[in-house]
Amino acid sequence: MDGHDYEYLVAKYLRGHGYTGVKVTKGSGDFGVDVTAHRAGHKYAVQCKYYSSPVSLGAIQEAVAGKALYNCDRAMVVTNSTFTKAARELANANNVLLLENVRSAGAFRFSQLPKGVRIFLLGAYLFAASALFVAMLDINKEQPFWTAVYNVVTTMTFMLFPLWIGPAIRGVKKLFQLIYIKGKIRKVESTLDQMAVSTQSVQPKINASALQPFLPIEVRDNRDEFANNLSELSVLTTSAIQRKCKCGNNCAYAVLQSLQVYGMIREIRQFTYEWTEKALLLGAEGRNG
Questions:
Q1: Among 54, 39, 52, CA closest to 91
Q2: Please, what are the domains in the chain?
């Protein structure tokens, strides 16, 4: 990552922390202001410093000087490193906001490790990979064929570790995200079913015998039973019908379709229905004489 890339990283960081109107200025002739941003009625002139050592007071001076040129009333300096004592004192005197250790959010970068650590890890990896490779070549001829294949595959997998570990981690992360989303969907469906059951007691009961002619052909052998069970439901969903009538999903869906065609039910939420006034008045003449 170079300084210009870091400016875009800082812009993304600011957007994620509530700043609006975040813009990266042009690369050259920016007069010490790399990013401009708004928050709480203030406009900030932001100086970005991608350093491997602490940032000195020169960056504070640049931010203060460039603030007026961009019509900003606040100045800010952001770095992936830290600030010197002199820089902090100058920032306090000029009301400049300092943000340090701002790096890519939650991401590990090998290049961010100290140079000595990077050299040690790289040397250890090359030593282990070369040792495994030599061991693979020194296969005893009396070994079974599949043992030799296993040695080759495991050695090459380890040697190509830097290439596959990143995609593997991202794939596992996406898998867990899908599992979490599916769990959320099931929870919402369960809540809708509970709401349907809880509202049954406050709705008038449907005339079961008058409901029979509006049921689909799929339930022709059990019209009485289906009509009686459906009349006890005030809110209808496929899962509620399956539980109440002890039928399959296709049968429950056919019931909903038939009732909807005849105007007996109307959709109040996605895949959730209630009885219409037409259904509530079924057989009213017979009941009232």
A1: 54
A2: 3-99 (3.40.1350.10), 113-159 (no CATH), 200-288 (1.10.10.10)
